[in-house]
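quick one
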Amino acid sequence: MIRIGAIAVGLFFAAVVFLWSFVPGVITYFTEPTEKAAEYAFHEKAHGPEGGFSFDGPFGKWDYAQLQRGYQVYKEVCAACHSIEYVAFRNLEELGYNEAEVKQEASTFNIPEYNADVAEVTTRPGLPTDHFPPVPYFGAGDPPDLSLMTKARANGSNYVYSLLTGYGEPDPEKLAKYPEFETPAGLYFNPYFANVNISMAPPLMEGIVTYNDGTEATVSQMAQDVSAFLTWTAEPTLIKRKQTGWPVLGFLLFATILAYLSKKQIWASIKPRKKD
Ligand code: HEC
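structure w/ heme C:
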């Protein structure tokens, strides 16, 4: 008993010392609150396009024409700097291209391959089974692979849309409040990027692609299309997942009713209904 008492007393004092160690920090927190960096003031929350994406919500669906336009934007604009290495050419069939089109598409890409005969890396035309090749980049910054980008950022599809449409000048009112804030040379102000200065120059400008289906290639339209495409690359089974959810919920509801009825059946003899 005495031993347990001694341990308890020891623990009590250890706890007091431990908790006391936080006191100076708590005092400083209130007396000298840390000032947030100016970036916090300029940062804005991502939002989707007006009207949202076709795949939003529990009944969302892919808009295949949009995914194809998004692929075109990726290929003609983003692919200059960004790879999508987790996507294979044959996956493009899911966007509504047929086998011959995919074969043709793949063959327009050069795939690097180690060639043992000459002990060098050489290139060959792509096959449907190949993945999109890595993209060499020698500019400023480090363009990340975009295959999983919409999953790698919170609210990813909306984030990519906001990022692409969000370039501009810092709010003058906020600038007056934070005069020390600046966008360093070589970076671009974008309030949706984590630290609001990004090394990617605004990649989209009106009419930079020409859509086959006659859709007008505004910046907002292209941003929306390529965000949809990147949502597909990150989660091609998104719609299937949503659709599977409904039968699963239905089954769970059915199983719950069954469980309730069998519970009533089992307890019926033990807890008879009150007779009155
Ligand atoms: C000229 C090269 C270039 C082009 C073209 C380009 N990007 Fe980028 N991108 C970059 C660089 C560099 C970065 C890294 C930025 C940084 O970390 O400051 C980047 C970063 C990004 C990011 C990541 C932002 C984050 O949160 O980390 C996304 C998303 C992105 N680009 C999407 C696109 C899309 C979509 C397109 C096509 C419409 C595109 N980019 C075209 C160079 C480019």
